C-alpha cells in the first residue's frame, strides 16, 4: 500500500460521497454492474486504504491497488473525453450564468449546470455505460474488486474538488477558466478609443495661462476652524467633528495654495506634514497625537514644530542636519558676524558687556561665542537662528540670506522674550 494512500469513510454503503455530485459518481459505478459482491469487496478494499496514490488524467483515473499478492495491481477507470464541440457547448452553459462560475470557485457543482449541460447533450457527470474499468489482475469481473475500490476511493477527492470531473473529461481548471475569460472578453462591448490627450505639463501650462484670478480672501496660510461641517460624522465612526472641521479648513488652504501656483505641500514627507499640522493647529491634543504618530520624543517634535513656524519644511530639514557652505561664504559670514556681534554687545543698554570668546564653526553651524546664539546654514542659502534654552538649541527667529540679519532677528527675539518655550 502506498504511503500516500487515503482511507475512505468507514460507515455505510454510501458513506464514500458527501456531495450530490460525488453520490452521482458512485451511482454511475453501481449502475454499471449487477455484481454486488465485487462492489462490496471493492468498498472493503477502499475502506482499508488498499488503494495507493491516485493519478487523474484526461479520460482516466489510475492507481495501484493492493490485492492478495505481494505486488499491487495496476488499476484504471476510463471515461470518454468531450469533443471540441461538446466543450464549446459546456463552456457556453457555464458562462451563461455568473452563479455557475461563483459556485465552482467555491468548490461546488451547481445542479442546474449539470441539468443544462445534459440538455445540450454534454455529459459532465459519468453515465453508467461510460465507466470502463481496467486491471492487471486475472479477475474478469466488470468491474473487478480492485477497479471498484479505485472508483470508491476517488469519490472523496471528487467531493472536495468537482473540477476533477472536468479534468477527466479532458480539460484542467486553468484551461476551463482561460476559456471562460476569453468568452467574457469577446462578449464585452468594445471600449471607445482613448483620446490622444496632451502632456500633463502642457495641459497645466495652458490652464495656468487662462485661469481666472482667485477671489480676495485672507492670507493663504490662515486656517479658520469655525466653519461648520455640512453633515455630522456618524456617531459610530469615532470621528470628532471639531477635528474634521480643522482638517477641512486645512485642505481648503492647501487647495488655494495649489491654485495660486505654490506646490511645496505636494513634496512633503510624512514627518514634515505632521509637523506642519502641529504648527498650524496649536493645542496639546493634536500635538501629542501627531507626535505619537511620528515616533519622535515630545521635545524633539516640539523643536521641529517651532522650526516649521519660523521657516517651513526647509527649517525642519535644518533642525535635523546641516551642510557646510563653501569656505568663502563661511569665512565672509564669520567676519561679518564678529563685527556685528561686537557692536550689539557694546550698544546693549542696562546689561553688562558680554565677552565674545570666538565664533566656532561645525558642519554648517556657527556658534556665536558665549551669547547662547547659533546660526545654521540651510540648503536654500539662508541662515537659520537658534538660541540655547535649558541646555539645548531651539529655533528662535526667521531665517535670512544675510547672516547679520539672521543674528539681529535672533538677538531681538531673545531680548524681547522671556526665554520660555511655547511649543509644549
List keywords for this structure.
47% helix, five-stranded antiparallel sheet, disordered N terminus, 424 residues, 9 strands
SSE blueprint:
Layout: H1 20-31, H2 36-47, E1 55-57, E2 60-65, E3 73-78, H3 84-95, H4 98-105, H5 111-119, E4 132-135, H6 145-160, H7 163-168, H8 173-187, H9 200-210, H10 241-259, H11 270-280, H12 284-294, H13 298-320, H14 327-347, E5 359-362, E6 365-368, E7 373-377, E8 383-389, E9 392-395, H15 403-416
Antiparallel strand pairs: 1-2, 2-3, 3-4, 5-6, 6-7, 7-8, 8-9
Q: What can you tell me about this protein's structure?
A:
The structure is a single chain. Among the domains are: about 20-185, no CATH class; about 325-415. It has about 425 residues and is an alpha+beta fold. Helix 1 runs antiparallel to helix 6, helix 2 (about 35-45) packs across helix 6 (about 145-160) and helix 11 crosses helix 13. The chain has a 5-stranded antiparallel sheet. It has helices spanning about 20-30, 35-45, 85-95, 100-105, 110-120, 145-160, 165-170, 175-185, 200-210, 240-260, 270-280, 285-295, 300-320, 325-345, 405-415, and strands spanning about 55, 60-65, 75-80, 130-135, 360, 365-370, 375, 385-390, 390-395.
Amino acid at each position: 500500500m502506498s504511503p500516500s494512500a487515503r482511507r475512505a469513510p468507514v460507515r455505510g454503503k454510501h458513506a464514500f460521497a458527501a456531495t450530490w455530485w460525488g453520490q452521482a459518481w458512485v451511482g454511475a459505478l453501481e449502475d454499471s454492474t449487477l455484481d454486488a459482491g465485487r462492489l462490496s469487496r471493492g468498498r472493503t478494499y477502499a475502506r482499508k486504504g488498499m488503494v495507493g496514490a491516485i493519478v487523474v488524467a484526461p479520460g482516466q483515473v489510475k492507481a495501484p491497488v493492493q490485492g492478495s499478492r505481494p505486488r499491487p495491481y495496476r488499476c484504471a477507470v476510463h471515461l470518454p473525453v468531450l469533443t471540441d464541440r461538446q466543450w464549446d457547448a459546456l463552456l457556453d452553459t457555464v458562462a451563461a450564468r455568473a452563479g455557475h462560475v461563483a459556485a465552482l470557485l467555491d468548490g461546488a457543482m451547481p445542479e442546474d449546470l449539470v441539468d443544462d449541460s445534459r440538455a445540450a447533450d454534454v455529459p459532465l457527470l459519468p453515465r453508467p455505460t461510460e465507466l470502463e474499468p481496467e486491471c492487471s489482475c486475472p479477475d474478469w469481473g466488470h468491474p473487478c474488486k480492485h477497479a471498484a475500490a479505485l472508483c470508491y476511493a476517488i469519490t472523496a477527492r471528487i467531493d472536495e474538488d468537482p473540477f476533477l470531473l472536468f479534468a477527466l473529461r479532458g480539460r484542467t481548471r486553468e484551461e476551463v477558466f482561460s476559456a471562460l475569460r476569453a468568452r467574457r472578453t469577446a462578449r464585452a462591448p468594445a471600449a471607445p478609443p482613448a483620446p490622444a490627450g496632451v502632456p500633463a505639463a502642457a495641459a497645466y501650462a495652458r490652464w495656468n495661462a487662462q485661469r481666472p484670478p482667485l477671489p480676495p480672501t485672507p492670507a493663504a496660510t490662515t486656517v479658520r476652524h469655525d466653519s461648520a461641517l455640512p453633515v455630522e460624522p456618524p456617531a459610530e465612526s469615532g470621528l470628532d467633528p471639531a477635528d474634521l472641521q480643522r482638517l477641512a479648513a486645512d485642505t481648503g488652504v492647501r487647495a488655494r495654495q495649489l491654485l495660486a501656483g505654490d506646490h511645496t505641500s505636494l513634496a512633503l514627507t510624512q514627518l514634515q506634514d505632521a509637523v506642519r499640522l502641529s504648527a498650524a493647529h496649536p493645542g496639546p491634543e493634536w500635538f501629542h497625537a501627531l507626535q505619537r504618530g511620528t515616533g519622535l520624543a515630545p521635545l524633539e517634535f516640539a523643536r521641529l514644530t517651532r522650526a516649521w513656524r519660523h521657516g517651513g519644511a526647509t527649517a525642519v530639514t535644518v533642525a535635523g542636519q546641516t551642510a557646510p557652505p563653501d569656505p568663502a561664504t563661511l569665512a565672509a559670514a564669520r567676519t561679518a558676524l564678529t563685527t556685528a556681534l561686537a557692536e550689539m554687545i557694546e550698544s546693549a543698554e542696562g546689561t553688562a558687556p558680554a565677552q565674545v570668546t570666538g565664533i566656532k564653526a561645525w558642519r554648517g553651524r556657527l556658534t556665536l561665542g558665549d551669547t547662547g546664539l547659533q546660526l545654521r546654514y540651510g540648503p536654500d542659502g539662508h541662515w537659520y537662528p537658534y538660541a540655547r534654552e535649558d541646555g539645548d538649541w531651539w529655533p528662535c527667529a526667521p531665517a535670512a540670506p544675510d547672516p547679520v540679519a539672521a543674528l539681529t532677528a535672533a538677538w531681538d527675539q531673545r531680548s524681547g522674550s522671556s526665554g520660555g518655550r511655547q511649543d509644549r
